[in-house]
Amino acid sequence: MVQLPNDLNETVIQAQAAAQAALDAGHSRVQVEIKIPELKIQPVAQQFIQPFIALGPQLRLLFPDAGSAALARRDWGNPPYGIRGLLETKVQAEETFFIFIEPSSVEVEDVERICDAISPRPVILLNPCLENVSVVGIGYASRRLRDRFLSTIEPCYHLQPLDQAILFRCYPHPWQVWQEEDGIYQQRAEFPTKPSSEDIEELLYGGAVQEGTGSTAQKPGLLVGLQRFIKALSQ
């Protein structure tokens, strides 16, 4: 059984393995989400891409803008693989593997356009945030985006501390919810697809939390445990 990572290094190692497993299984678009507060993406990205740098010029990293791409090139010593902003230069014929670094909902149309243009070449999206109501809207527009593009992306790795639990997925394992019990995180349940906030609430409380119920008495200790977990992952 897959376990929660103990630190950020283990998190990245798990994410690398999950991404490769999903690609090997035939998924051409996979997503890695490490949702740790105030996570600095550039050092995480530099570690995450290590198994893929042997591709050399076949590899292209795509940052949201030219400035962040230039910063990465400078800090990483102008490596032999391509590091570009989303709108910088056309995809080259020799480029066969693509990693998007922290694209946001502002760039979602560009990400979709590039993914469609390079299909079926493999794509990894590292810490994307492609859905934002204030940018892509709600209702029909949001559903079209999900049906047309977001639904084609396999969420192969997901680590997200919530208010009172941890949501975890490491491909090929199912989605899991973990909770601290006596100082040790225990798996509470598995889900075949990503559980909603209502699903998690139902699991933890058997429904909505009511004022005056005993469940709130355990919250401070649980929050302390979550804070310890997040701190360990940030090391």
From TrEMBL:
Pfam family, one: DUF1995
InterPro entries: Chloroplast_ADK (IPR053021), DUF1995 (IPR018962)
Domain of life: Bacteria
Residue stretches making up the DUF1995 domain: 5-202
PANTHER family per UniProt: DOMAIN PROTEIN, PUTATIVE (DUF1995)-RELATED
Protein name: DUF1995 domain-containing protein
Species this chain originates from: Prochlorothrix hollandica PCC 9006 = CALU 1027
